[in-house]
């Protein structure tokens, strides 16, 4: 009995680490979604495509211009964030006073267009993107071999999530953003350019998705469908954490990644659905999510 228990624990630990890596991507992507919804009240279905764009921009920087991973971490979010600003100014800004459904349909259409363009240009097969030499290799922990790059992803995701939360909750700009979502007319009366602030907020949320895409490029193959593979689970994470809750999205993303990893060990058949089962239970017991407000 003891030997069986030790064997199960030994099998679970590597899956927990893998789940933590997936949770890091869930947290980063759901953070961007929560920022956009919490500040702009827009359900951004283009988020998965913008995650994919971040990975593709990193790949193009390397293969067309010889610009490596470290610069791509800065350039790719900036480039994709600018495209997000253009989308917000030309299309999404016209829908703020309408029902959420219109924004969802528009962003869903934009996602289909973006993915279709990349699919026509690059096909559906994955493109390789190697991690930088400094992050190759790994550590032998005894019970598993931990790749250095995966440990880097978890650490950077934690830092990025903490930085975004502090910027929104503890800074003057963050207080302006929160006030603008509650009463934009009053904030505008104090001389603050609310439309510009909303545009930059959308661009920042998109940049977070692109940043996650660059981190994902060496782990997953760079392909037009990589965002679609994540976005459904990420929406479930946002709903469980609470729509618009920054802290809820981050915490829930990491927790669900760990639970998904454990499920792969003890009940592999349910690993693809465990997140949605949890979402259904949470919605039944607490419709606003674990950290959400009514």
As laid out across the biggest beta sheet, the strand order is 1-2
Helix content: over 70%
Order of helices and strands: HHHHEEHHHHHHH
In percent, how much strand structure appears in the residues? under 5%
CATH topology: ABC transporter involved in vitamin B12 uptake, BtuC
Number of strands: 2
The coarse overall form would be globular
- CATH architecture descriptor text: Orthogonal Bundle
Provide the residue-averaged pLDDT: 84
Supply Rg.
Answer: 20 Å
Termini separation comes to 48 Å
Q: Give the number of domains.
A: 1
Number of helices: 11
Helix and strand composition category: mainly alpha
CATH first level: which class?
A: Mainly Alpha
The main sheet comes to:
2 strands, antiparallel
Quaternary state of the chains = single chain
**Which ranges are low-confidence, i.e. pLDDT below 50, for 5 or more consecutive residues?**
none
List the helices and strands and how they pair.
Blueprint: H1 2-40, H2 47-65, H3 69-90, H4 100-122, E1 138-140, E2 145-147, H5 148-170, H6 172-182, H7 184-189, H8 194-216, H9 226-241, H10 246-266, H11 274-285
Antiparallel strand pairs: 1-2
Helix pairs in contact: 1-5, 1-8, 1-9, 1-10, 2-3, 2-4, 2-8, 2-9, 3-8, 5-6, 9-10, 9-11
Summarize the structure in words.
- This protein is mostly helical.
- The protein has one domain: ABC transporter involved in vitamin B12 uptake, BtuC.
- Helices cover 73% and strands 2% of the residues.
- The protein has eleven helices and two strands.
- The chain has a two-stranded antiparallel ribbon with strand order 1-2.
- β1 and β2 (145-147) form a beta hairpin.
- α2 (47-65) packs across α3 (69-90).
- The longest helix is centred in the N-terminal third of the chain and has 39 residues, at 2-40.
- It is globular.
- It starts with a helix and ends in a 9-residue tail after the last helix.
- The relative contact order is 0.21.
- The mean pLDDT is 84.
